[in-house]
UniProtKB/TrEMBL annotation:
<keyword id="KW-0812">Transmembrane</keyword>
<protein>
    <recommendedName>
        <fullName>DUF4386 family protein</fullName>
    </recommendedName>
</protein>
<feature type="transmembrane region" description="Helical">
    <location>
        <begin position="133"/>
        <end position="154"/>
    </location>
</feature>
<feature type="transmembrane region" description="Helical">
    <location>
        <begin position="187"/>
        <end position="204"/>
    </location>
</feature>
<feature type="transmembrane region" description="Helical">
    <location>
        <begin position="42"/>
        <end position="65"/>
    </location>
</feature>
<keyword id="KW-0472">Membrane</keyword>
<keyword id="KW-1133">Transmembrane helix</keyword>
<feature type="transmembrane region" description="Helical">
    <location>
        <begin position="163"/>
        <end position="181"/>
    </location>
</feature>
<feature type="transmembrane region" description="Helical">
    <location>
        <begin position="77"/>
        <end position="96"/>
    </location>
</feature>
<feature type="transmembrane region" description="Helical">
    <location>
        <begin position="12"/>
        <end position="30"/>
    </location>
</feature>
Amino acid sequence: MTITTSALTRGAGVSAVLSGLLFILIQPIHPPENVAAVTGTAWVVIALMTIAMAVLGLAGLTGIYFRQVRESGPLGLLGYVMLGGFYLVTTAWTFVEAFVLPQIADDAPRFVDDFLGVPAGVSPQGDVGSLPLLFTAVSVLYLVGGLVFGIAVYRARILQRGAAALLAVGTVLSLAAAVLPHSVGRYAAVPVGLAMVWLGWSLWSEQRTPAAPSAAQPHNSPGASVPTR
């Protein structure tokens, strides 16, 4: 099988679509974030889905960026690095949720509760080190990265501009999650998920559209001679 740039780009489009769909699906089915939930099967399944969302999101984001690397300029690079950083840290954070917290839930329930309370903005009762600062940094990567990358894609005029605008606006709307209960605020992820689906579909379909023949290209009829020099 021949691997081409077009095939890789279409694959990135599919990755972005799947990432967006997972981002949306996870929100209504996420288990309660407490020590009692981390030992259940549903917790591990959702955590693995979240890791898949982040890995696919990074792959899709990379394809989206490199399709318009020149047109998006420094703004696109900044947005790509920041939003890509969000996906990377999400992968690491969720790995701990999936494979570390269930193992220590019985011996260190307070730490587990404090760890899970960080995304919800709950003040930890014990020592969790720099986790609150790390989560704040991740939030900045998500909010600023999504806004900047959305603006860069919009200005590049390569993919669907509506999808780029939805990404930019959707990440800004996520600020509402800070004043809402965590179980409700998580639905602020839905517009961003839809934007990733839309951008991924735009990237995939753009690569599937054959290039139109140039009007200036000469048409060689069967009897026409082809110049050799």
